[in-house]
Specification:
disordered C terminus; five-stranded antiparallel beta sheet; alpha+beta
Length: 624
């Protein structure tokens, strides 16, 4: 029988010793590895990991620049910055967002719009970035939150600057406004330049000169505690304030123009023909840009957008109107350039028909003006005379000459998205309407009707070129840029357009003499506005029909009232050495002589009272 060895003590001891040695070797190896790793962390890579450790409590925070201010030509503030309180939240430091919003809502007023905007930003942006929960806290709200700020980790109360427009609606369409950076804005801007600020110029000067007004963002290195609150500042690079912008506008003339237009829809452009400086750029009804800078409600914005008066539309820049008879001085120049003798006469019977046609085109005076020459036709705005001129010149020569004065083109003003309006030609009609050009369309273009459309700015620019006897100066709103540090102001160079050169330089004087008679002649269409003027004004009225005479005849008085023509006036003073151009349009204003010319006269009156002394006998003295 085989014997089984149950216990071999020698073998057991050997096995235990072997295992202990292996364990000791493993422990020694692990200890060496641990010591080696410790050496690497504490000695070899000490500086690297020290900085990584510091980064857990060191924060780089942007220092937003102070946005540049905007002034009128005399230093009156149009846009400035005021200090306000706001609540900022770092989302990653907030454990329970819903609870935080609920509890803060008991201390400050949080609207649904505040909360929706905040939640949207939290979703769209990194959670470590500070997001604005509410701006413009009242002093009471700021005090209530400050007392309990320690209860809200990740939420801080800070003071910042917000845009304010002291003149309110006086220059809203020109200055524009700032608004929050939108998703569309983020696609177009360098986001690094907007660190620390959430506002950007949306329209007007605020948008066109955004780069200059914005300034340059700074940065500060701060130490924070576990809750994200700043313990101390380590270093900082100061932000550079934005450039201050001085405009060519005269706020007083802006106010006069708005008051003169009253509740009517219309526009006024006043400028200096010698410099192109725009003195007044008005569109009515207007609006207060503070509504947008402070965060306009959906209801208020809906009311503005839905208003039949369209207060958000800048009619001076974007309004496109048939110019009516204000085009006649340019047609007169074109006719003289193409051989018309200024003393040639045309018989006006109140009707005009093209050769071989029975269709009649009316003059505003039913019984006609009799025999009139160029001077008479301008003074009395005889349509028949200009029908004949348009027919003799033709649409192509007429369009070419009008184009020299800037029609169908941008003037180059320093505002975004300036329209070209419409200078029609047979080629344009064929391309856009797939129709041929008819002779009747040529003659109505000659009196500023039909397809021809201009903006108030374009017409002011064209009138300035006429007043300058062909010298074209581009209109501008920028008078100067001020360095906020040194106070030095740089002025932009004058920009010349393509000058209009006529074969006979005396043609300018002949046409301007006719325009002078519009206000100072015994039969002038604006003689009521020129009466007793201490300075000589050259101008032209215009009545742009919105429906045909034939259609108007079929309407009742009440219906016809809705289709009143647009009233125009363009003019300059004094005649010999023009200092100011004024262009006025009043929508549905009726006759240019009664609806628009008095507005221009009021603007001229204030301008001369402000800048000149005028003796009772009408002799002008020098500038004060």
């Amino acid at each position: 029988m085989k014997k089984h060895i149950i216990n071999d003590r020698v073998q057991d001891v050997r096995t235990v010793k072997t295992r202990l040695m292996i364990s000791a070797v493993v422990m020694v190896v692990l200890t060496v590895i641990l010591l080696g790793r410790f050496f690497v962390l504490q000695v070899t890579h000490h500086d690297q990991y020290r900085m990584m450790s510091l980064d857990n409590q060191i924060d780089l925070r942007p220092l937003p620049p102070v946005r540049g201010m905007i002034f009128d030509r005399y230093g009156i503030v149009l846009a400035e910055n005021q200090s306000v309180y706001e609540l900022e939240v770092i989302p990653e430091n907030v454990n329970d967002m819903d609870r935080m919003l609920s509890e803060i809502g008991m201390l400050v007023e949080l609207t649904d719009q505040n909360i929706r905007r905040f939640r949207r930003n939290v979703k769209q942006r990194p959670r470590f970035e500070s997001q604005i929960l509410k701006s413009r806290l009242t002093d009471a709200e700021a005090a209530r939150f400050a007392v309990r700020q320690h209860q809200f980790p990740g939420v801080t109360l800070s003071a910042s600057l917000r845009r304010v427009y002291p003149q309110k609606d006086l220059a809203g369409h020109v200055v524009g406004y700032v608004g929050r950076v939108s998703e569309q804005d983020l696609k177009k801007i360098d986001t690094r330049a907007y660190k620390g600020t959430s506002y950007i110029g949306k329209i007007g000067i605020e948008s066109f000169y955004e780069t200059e007004l914005l300034g340059q963002v700074g940065v500060q290195q701060v130490e924070t505690d576990a809750y994200g609150r700043v313990v101390r500042q380590i270093s900082h690079v100061a932000a550079r304030a934005g450039t201050n912008v001085y405009l060519t506008l005269d706020v007083q003339l802006q106010k006069v123009a708005i008051e003169a237009l009253g509740e009517r829809r219309g526009a006024v452009v006043a400028l200096e023909p010698s410099t192109g400086d725009i003195l007044a750029f008005v569109s009515t009804p207007t609006y207060d840009p503070n509504l947008f800078a402070q965060g306009i409600s959906h209801e208020a914005y809906g009311n503005l957008r839905g208003s039949v008066d369209k207060p958000l539309v800048n009619r001076a820049l974007y309004g496109r109107y048939a110019p009516g008879s204000t085009i006649k001085p340019l047609l007169a120049l074109a006719a003289l350039e193409h051989g018309l003798k200024s003393q040639e006469k045309v018989l006006c019977t109140g009707r005009y028909a093209l050769p071989g046609s029975s269709r009649k085109y009316r003059c505003w005076r039913r019984k006609g003006h009799g025999y009139v020459n160029l001077h008479d036709a301008l003074e009395q705005s005889c349509a028949v005379f200009f029908y004949e001129l348009a027919h003799s010149i033709g649409i192509r020569k007429m369009a070419d000459y009008f184009g020299r004065f800037g029609f169908g083109q941008q003037t180059g003003i320093d505002l975004l998205d300036e329209p070209t309006a419409l200078l029609p030609t047979p080629e344009w009609k064929k391309k856009n309407r797939q129709e041929s050009w008819y002779p009747g369309e040529t003659i109505i273009t000659g009196i500023g009707q039909g397809y021809l459309l201009v903006t108030p700015l374009q017409l002011a620019y064209a009138t300035a070129t006429l007043a300058n006897r062909g010298r074209a100066i581009r209109p501008r709103l920028l008078r100067g840029l001020e360095n906020p540090g040194s106070g030095a102001i740089t002025h932009p160079a004058q920009r010349r357009g393509l000058s209009v050169k006529n074969k006979d330089s005396s043609t300018w004087d002949r046409v301007i003499a006719g325009m002078e008679s519009v206000l100072h002649g015994s039969r002038g269409t604006a003689r009521a506005s020129g009466r007793n003027s201490p300075y000589r004004i050259a101008g032209k009225t215009g009545t742009a029909q919105t429906i045909s005479f034939a259609t108007r005849a079929t309407l009742s008085d009440e219906e016809a009232e809705q289709f009143q023509p647009h009233a125009w006036f363009v003019g300059f003073a004094p005649r010999e050495d023009p200092e100011i151009i004024v262009a006025v349009v009043v929508q549905r204003g009726g006759s240019g002589g009664s609806g628009a010319a008095p507005i221009a006269r009021e603007i001229l009156r204030v301008y001369y009272e402000k800048h000149k002394r005028v003796q009772p006998d009408g002799m002008e003295l020098a500038f004060q």
